[in-house]
Amino acid sequence: MAFALGIRYSVFLLIGSRVQRPWGLLIKNYAEVNELVQRPMKPCGWPGCPNLVRGQRYCEEHAKQKQKNQDERRGSFRQRGYTSNWDKVRKIKLSRDPLCERCESKGKVTAATLVHHRQSLSKGGSLADMDNLMSCCIKCHDEIHREQGDKW
Ligand SMILES: [Zn+2]
Ligand SMILES: [Zn+2]
Ligand SMILES: [Zn+2]
Questions:
Q1: Does 63 lie in the same domain as 8?
Q2: Are 13 and 55 in a shared domain?
Q3: Which of 40, 88, 145, 152 is deepest in the core (most CB within 10 A)?
């Protein structure tokens, strides 16, 4: 009998601990219960965050984190803008000089597939200045960089 009660009690505890949280929140006082009914506490929208929030998407900490992430994303949008600018410059250069300039100087005709910076960006060369650009085939581009001692 005592044994059976013991089992029943531990089952009760087990179920009790599962429902403890929401019920514990509900019984404090009427005003609070009323507010909970109107605007229920929700878990913070941040994946894995245990904090409960009311009327907001994220807890205070994660609202800040979210803002920070958005700022960072905006930053990478700017970078993407930079890249697409270079893409435009590249295309203009290739349409203006569609042949490999190095092959041309050797009397060969080869289609250029990439644009090389005569003065490399790391040495202060301009990214988009047409005078600093050179249409190249892959082979010549490799050769140029090998001659310059760059690792390719
Ligand atoms: Zn959170
Ligand atoms: Zn070439
Ligand atoms: Zn290059």
A1: yes
A2: yes
A3: 145
Ligand with an atom nearest the CA of residue 133: 3
Tell me which residue range forms the domain holding 118. 97-152
Does residue 52 lie within any of the structural domains?
yes
Which residues, chain by chain, have CB under 5 Å from ion ligand 1?
A: 44, 46, 49, 51, 59, 62
Give me the mean pLDDT over the 96-114 stretch.
97
CA–centroid distance, residue 115 to ligand 3 (Å): 7
Whether 118 is covered by a domain: the verdict is: yes
The DSSP secondary structure of 41-69, one letter per residue, reads -EE-SSTT---EESSSSS-HHHHHHHHHH
pTM over 0.70: no
Rounded to the nearest angstrom, the distance between the alpha carbon of 69 and the centre of ligand 1 is 14
